[in-house]
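User: Show me a protein chain along with its predicted structure.
Assistant: Here is one chain, sequence first, then structure tokens.
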Amino acid sequence: MVNQKKNKNGICVFCGVEGKVTDDHVPPKNLFKGFPDNELIKVPSCLSCNNNSSKDDEYFRAFIIPQEDIASHPQAQKLNKIVRKKFDESEKKGLEIRMTSQLYTKDIFTPTGIYLGERNLIYPEYSRIDSTLKKIIKGLFFHLMKKPFPSEIFHIAVVDKNQIEELQRILTIDLNSLLAELDESPINDIHRVFSFKCVDKTNTLPKCSVWLLTFFEKRQFFGLTYPKKLGPEVNLIDSDPNDIALITF
């Protein structure tokens, strides 16, 4: 629950409504258990946007921290214990049932055909992951540009990093020059839990911004903001779970 004493007047960076706002953490605070609050990124958010995203934030954490490529990260291990404990609490049974119902096992092979054994996989609710990632980009946009993301004229697309070519095909946008700039742009790192890069061209041609979001030094998502006239809104593309959702539950 949001602390009412911290409410102040302002404009919500997520919905644009003016009124009572409070600090919202970007990315969600639940990824930074144990780190000083004053070292995290916070943006003004209305109570509705702040509270209504809390369940998606919990789902995102439960989805990302047990993935095989990051499960050995010290912070991911700490959070995994917290999530497992929450799963055992009666009020969290809904999340536990939802997550475990999406688990299945499959034989995994290397590209050369070497058998790696049977692994746990999860096919997540991509709409919830997509919602959390887009909210992160909106928050970071405000943090860097000092103005709300122009949702009335721009879309946000977020895909797994290995799906950039697919995103370009869908939107017929040539991102090569922006990707080259993104590779050279500085890294903004928060306690090795989350880092991001950004190239903003929303005031010049092409009117886009590109983002690279990295969680626990391994798991990467690519974000693109673009004028609505350039194409439809793209939701997180359903990847092959073999590539993105090996987990260690």
